[in-house]
Amino acid sequence: MTVVAVGGDTMSLRLALTSALRRAPRAASARLPSTARMMIPTTTAPFAASTVGSHRGARPRPVVAAHVRHGVRPASSFALSAAETATASSTAEIDVDAAKAAAAAQGETVRSLKDALKKGDATKDDVDVAVKKLLELKAIVEQLENPAAAAAAEDAGAKAKDAAAGKDSAGKDVGVTPKSQDFSRWYLDVIRECELADYGPARGTMVIRPYGYAIWEAIQRWMDADFKKSGVQNAYFPQLIPYSFITKEASHVEGFSPELALVTRGGGKELEEPLVVRPTSETIVNHMFTQWIQSYRDLPLLINQWANVHRWEMRTRPFIRTLEFLWQEGHTAHATAAEAEARAVQMIDCYRRFAETVAAMPVIVGRKSRVESFAGADCTYTIEAMMGDGKALQAGTSHNLGQNFSKAFDTTFLDEKGETRHVYQSSWGVSPRLIGGIIMTHGDDAGLRLPPALAPIQVVVVPIAQKNKDKAAVADAANAIATTLTNAGIRVKVDDDDRNSPGWKFAQWEMKGVPVRVEVGPKDVAKNACVVARRDRPGKEGKEFDVAVDPSALVAKIEGTLADVQGAYLAQARAFRDANIVDVNSYDELVAAIDAGKWARGGWEGSDEDEKRVKEETGATIRCFPFEQPAGPHKCIVSGAPAKEVCIFAKSY
């Protein structure tokens, strides 16, 4: 696919796009009217399959038109790649998908122009024109998706759209699709506009940008400290693993074989044995444990590593499922089965505490079914979170490995009686999929909402001065507020860039999920006060005026507000989850609940084959058998027979 940058007015853009959408994709750049063309080669879309249901090898897509000012960086691959490989089953679907792609690309152009405006490479008029074009493209999408409604609303909405293309909207419209309109597109827009991540050059890979990586670092800090409190030590194991290691544990190789990436050549020669690029480390860890463990005095051995792994996923989604991802993986060895079980349960509770107290993400803790358990584990425990679209996210897992790997690798020890025994083991891990979970749990139509405990910036201070004579005093007051809060251990940023209006800054930091905003203007300086606004309460409802800036009072106020926002996010997410879990007593009720986008909770005594059949017929899987079981009696939702446990079925990421 080739993207052509087209100049000209809005009508020209509309005509060019409409023409392109209705023609076969041949000689695309030659037939588009243009005052200036810029050819941008693009690569295969790595995440398209999970966003718009495309497949690799789809036929070329129609050209996308976008206004790009000379010198501005090309549109993000998030906008382009999803468009270029989108697959549709009819001409109408192709039109809609291509129009959406054009709108997404124009949204990125708006953002590029805003960046250029800050550097002096673009003008305010450039931004306004680009925003107007973006609104026009969105209108085209609406017409394609719902022609009758769009026609009826066109006249009534004209004035509103013109106003939205004016000064205030030019700063606020950054191309984030409303969450309620298109959840999948909203998710990608948030990642792009908030600069959390971008696509890597290889299919299915992801580049985590500084703002996104700062969230991962916060996750690491909390986890690492908690691990070490229980005696876990960090180590590092090689990324390349002999293929023979993977084949030693039968269920392990069966489970991971489709996802393996193999190195077969090195130094210009064929390798005697292929090397597996680490999909997980149980095998190589056991190889080393066999050398390190001799007697019961060497146990328990508690190891964790922060590393990256590779799994050849076919359907990828940023932060949720990529070919390469960061994670932590813990590996332990114990003298008894009870100790290994206790460690596995202890670590899933660690993940629960993090999810609920730090990420403000309520989870259900439970045991996986045999079908859904980790390949090579006796038992897998999980924390399951409900996303904003009702789907489940497996946010962390802990496995009781029993003696499966120790027997495969002959990892033994001499017990107190001098007898040789195989160790019992556990393994456990989380990844940046937690970041995806945070986005999809808390985000709203305006963008990201970050829990204060994880937010890279907890407070943004925005000085507001209309006259030059006020700027120095307001700047001094803003910096003094920032210093006070920083000294109290609060993460603060002062946005004193006078190239953007206060309204633009408010919208920008709201979109990036900063929990608290402090505003200070000349009148506030005169009163030795400031304005405090909360991200969880939009508009005037979330603003408090005349907040004293006396250090002790201000710190107490901001710390209290941050705690309130943290608690509000958890409460809102828990209320949403609980409202979308349905108790079911029959298979028909289960099907109805899943069709409605709910989680279905009911008794289960079915077989593995029954579970697989439910997945085939509904798309839902058993997420877990919750540790907290409702009072009985229960009956199996498939057979009607008495059931000892209740499980939860849901569609998932």
Would you spell out the secondary-structure blueprint of this structure?
Blueprint: E1 2-5, H1 10-21, H2 28-31, E2 39-41, H3 48-52, E3 64-66, H4 77-84, H5 91-119, H6 124-145, H7 147-164, H8 167-172, H9 183-193, E4 197-199, E5 206-208, H10 210-229, E6 233-234, E7 240-242, H11 243-246, H12 250-256, E8 261-266, E9 269-277, H13 282-292, E10 301-310, E11 324-334, H14 337-357, E12 363-367, E13 379-386, E14 392-402, H15 404-409, E15 412-414, E16 420-422, E17 424-430, H16 433-442, E18 459-463, H17 468-487, E19 492-494, H18 502-511, E20 516-520, H19 522-526, E21 529-534, E22 543-548, H20 551-579, E23 581-583, H21 587-595, E24 599-604, H22 608-618, E25 621-626, E26 634-635, E27 642-643, E28 645-650
Parallel strand pairs: 1-3, 6-10, 18-19, 18-20, 23-24
Antiparallel strand pairs: 1-2, 4-5, 7-9, 8-9, 10-11, 11-17, 12-13, 12-25, 13-14, 14-17, 15-16, 20-21, 21-22, 24-28, 25-28, 26-27
Characterize the structure shown.
- This protein has 653 residues and is α+β, with helices and mostly antiparallel strands.
- Helices cover 43% and strands 22% of the residues.
- It has 22 helices and 28 strands.
- The strands form seven sheets. An eleven-stranded mixed beta sheet has the order 6-10-11-17-14-13-12-25-28-24-23, with helices on both faces.
- The longest helix has 29 residues.
- The two termini are 29 Å apart.
- The N terminus is likely disordered.
